[in-house]
Design goal:
6-stranded parallel beta sheet; 13 strands; globular
C-alpha cells in the first residue's frame, strides 16, 4: 500500500481546488492507497466529513498563515512518523516550496507540485521563491496548459483536467423546477448565476454592475453561491445601488449540480483563473456562460460559451449575457458528450493513479 500525503495550501474550504481533490480522490481504490489530507487555515467540517466518507484520513495541523512555525513543526513530525511515499501539494504559487522542501528533508521520494491558477495574490513572494521551488518537486501537474506554463515555465508538467462525473451534472428539468421554486423564481424571470468565493479574483462588483445593467432590459434575479472575505462588500454594494431584492446570497452549498439546473446563464468576470471546475460542471449541465477572456480557451467545450474583455462596459456585458441566453434557448440544454472526454473523472483519475504509482 502506497502512503500519500495531500496538502491544499489554500485550506479545506469549499472551492475549486477542494472540489478537484474530492472528485479525483473519490475514484481511488483505498485497498491500494492510504490517503492523508492536511487540514489547515480553513477547516470546513462538511468538507472534512466528505473526505472521510471516501476513505481519506484528515489530519488537523496548526494554521499555516497564523502559526507558520507550529505548522512546520507538526508537518515535519508527521512526515518523519508516517514515512510517506508521495506528497501531493495543491496551490497557486511557489509558496508550495514550504511543504515540498520539508518533504525532501524528511525523505519523501515523490514530490508533486500541482498548480491551479495563472496568477497569485502575492506576486513578489512568488518571484522570490521561484528559484527554490523549481528544484523542490519531482513531478508537476496543472489544471491547464496556461496554468502550468505560468508556474513551471519550461519545466515539464502534465495537465490533469478538472474532471467531473458528467452524468451527475446533466440537465434535469425536474430539479430545475424544484430549485427555482425554492428561491422564488418564476419561469418568466431570467436567473443569472455565479459560483465562487467572494474575493478579489472573482470580481463580484463587476458582476453586480453587469446585472444592474441587465435589469434595465429584462426582469431578472442574481443567484450567488459562496462565502468569502468580500461578501459584506458585495452585500453593501447591492444595497447602495438598490438591487438587494434582486440578489440572492445563497452562501455555501453542497448541491451545486442542482443549482446549475435552476440557472439560465452563468456569468464569470474573473480577473484571473486557472481552469475553474465550475465552468466544466456548468457546461455539462448545458448552461450558457459569459466569461472573461483571461480564462484559457481550453475551457470551451460548448458553443454557448462566450468570452469578453473585462475592459468592456457593464452594458456591453449585459447585452452579451442576453444574446447568449436567447441563442442558447433555441438549441436547448443538450450537450455533445464526446467533447467532454478529457473531463470525464472515470478516465482522468487513472492518470492520477499512474502519477502516484509511477
Amino acid at each position: 500500500m502506497r502512503k500519500i500525503l495531500v496538502v491544499n495550501t489554500a485550506g479545506l474550504g469549499l472551492g475549486g481546488i477542494t472540489t478537484h481533490m474530492l472528485n479525483f480522490l473519490g475514484c481511488l481504490s483505498y485497498d491500494d492507497f492510504q490517503i492523508d489530507i492536511i487540514g489547515t487555515i480553513i477547516l470546513d467540517h462538511n468538507i472534512m466529513e466528505r473526505f472521510q466518507e471516501i476513505g481519506c484520513n484528515v489530519i488537523i495541523l496548526k494554521n499555516r498563515k497564523k502559526n507558520l512555525g507550529g505548522y512546520i513543526r507538526q508537518l515535519s513530525e508527521l512526515m518523519k512518523k508516517e514515512q510517506y511515499d508521495v506528497i501531493h501539494v495543491h496551490g497557486n504559487s511557489a509558496t508550495m516550496v514550504l511543504e515540498l522542501r520539508l518533504a525532501e528533508t524528511n525523505g519523501i521520494p515523490k514530490r508533486i507540485a500541482h498548480c491551479h491558477n495563472t496568477k497569485c495574490s502575492h506576486r513578489l513572494v512568488n518571484e522570490m521563491l521561484l528559484p527554490f521551488f523549481k528544484n523542490s518537486y519531482t513531478a508537476a501537474a496543472a489544471c491547464s496548459g496556461l496554468a502550468g506554463s505560468w508556474l513551471f515555465g519550461r519545466n515539464q508538467f502534465i495537465v490533469l483536467h478538472n474532471a467531473i462525473d458528467i452524468k451527475r451534472f446533466q440537465y434535469n428539468a425536474r430539479e430545475r423546477e424544484k430549485y427555482r421554486k425554492l428561491f422564488g423564481v418564476s419561469d418568466s424571470i431570467l436567473l443569472v448565476g455565479h459560483v465562487g468565493q467572494f474575493n478579489e479574483q472573482k470580481n463580484h462588483i463587476k458582476l453586480m454592475g453587469i446585472f444592474r445593467e441587465l435589469l434595465s432590459k429584462k426582469e431578472a434575479k442574481l443567484l450567488l453561491i459562496g462565502e468569502g472575505e468580500k461578501k459584506q462588500q458585495a452585500e453593501a454594494w447591492a444595497g447602495d445601488h438598490g438591487i438587494s431584492d434582486k440578489v440572492i446570497f445563497a452562501g455555501m452549498r453542497n448541491d451545486v449540480e442542482n443549482l446549475l439546473q435552476a440557472m439560465d446563464v452563468l456569468v464569470f468576470p474573473s480577473k484571473w483563473e486557472g481552469l475553474p471546475v465550475v465552468l466544466v460542471e456548468a457546461q455539462a449541465a448545458g448552461l450558457p456562460i459569459v466569461l472573461s477572456d483571461v480564462i484559457s480557451n481550453e475551457i470551451k467545450l460548448m458553443e454557448s460559451l462566450k468570452f469578453l474583455n473585462l475592459n468592456e462596459t457593464d452594458a456591453v456585458w449585459a447585452d452579451e449575457v442576453l444574446k447568449t441566453y436567447f441563442n442558447a434557448q433555441k438549441s436547448g440544454r443538450s450537450i455533445d458528450k464526446d467533447r467532454f472526454q478529457d473531463y470525464d473523472i472515470s478516465c482522468e483519475s487513472r492518470r492520477l493513479m499512474e502519477l502516484y504509482t509511477g
